[in-house]
What does this fold into?
Amino acid sequence: MAACFRYIVNDVGAAIAFYTQHLGFKLEMRPAPPFAEISRGDLHLYLNQPGGAGGGSAARSGEQQAPGGWNRIHLVVEDLGADVARLKAAGCRFRTDVVQGVGGKQILLEDPSGNLVELFEPNTAAYRAPGSAAS
It folds into this structure.
């Protein structure tokens, strides 16, 4: 079963370029300018611009959806230092520095709208991503 998430973005085209060029996502569909679906393995990410109908529509109170916050997707990487250097050289923005935790080291990368992507390098090959089945 695929995991699906929705990010509200300011510019769907810029978000597609960011995720496909820098993080290995694949464009699945873009049926309309304010919406696209991209994927990386079993992870599907829906990109919506705020406003209009569907996933980017306003709440009943009139409050508009907005990108950003601290919720994030978590991507396991093999060489965090190399990925950070490559992304910095490409002009990508980071919200944090690399931090070492109990299970590994991580950094928070911002997409063009300020949504977060956690890049995580586990301390051990035995690490299992959240939600993965036990061996």
In short: Strands lie at 3-8, 26-32, 35-40, 43-48, 72-76, 93-94, 99-100, 104-110, 116-122. The mean pLDDT is 90. Residues 3-58+67-122 form a domain with the 2,3-Dihydroxybiphenyl 1,2-Dioxygenase; domain 1 fold (CATH 3.10.180.10). The longest strand covers residues 26-32.
